[in-house]
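Subject line: Sequence and fold of a protein, written as structure tokens
Area: Proteins and the way their chains fold up in space.
Start of record: The labelled sequence and token lines come straight after this line.
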Amino acid sequence: MSAPRTPHRLDVQRILRYLRGTQEVGLLFPAYGYATLEAYSDADYAGCQDTRRSTSGWCVKIGRSFISWRCKKQDRVSKSSIEAEYRSMSEVASEIEWLRRLLAELGVQCPSPIRLHVGNTSAIRIATNPVLHDRTKHIEVHIHYVRQLVTEGIVELTYISSEDQPADLLTKAVSTTRHWFLAHKLMLR
């Protein structure tokens, strides 16, 4: 702020162009519908060219409205796509539990189990199988929080294809046309 340079001006111009181009875009929170939580989880395996760390992306909606989302580079390198997906599932599972408790405090009861859509069937199998295999020992114990929520009946894991996965918008570069298509498809659900 004290000594702006050309790169700073260019960044501000880019932000202003973005804001001008998205004036008609907004979030819709309809007053009708049920308080049903639903979540989507995705990961971009080894997507960072420099560090080969994966990117987690997830979003949670209540009824037809998205209320929480996040896109973040994972804090360590995953050894497999399953591990990257599992880390993303663990993050959104924590968010689901927090939102469920918050809504309960506000007097809104959400039906259980809360559906978590995941695009990796192997990650779903690991989360629902109580036996820890040698090939999964490298995944830290705290990530098995997902398994605990599944066992307790709080979360239900379901497969979702990449073309229907809204969390793809947070983890992968998509064309403007695909972005528009996914956004409108989500509004119709």
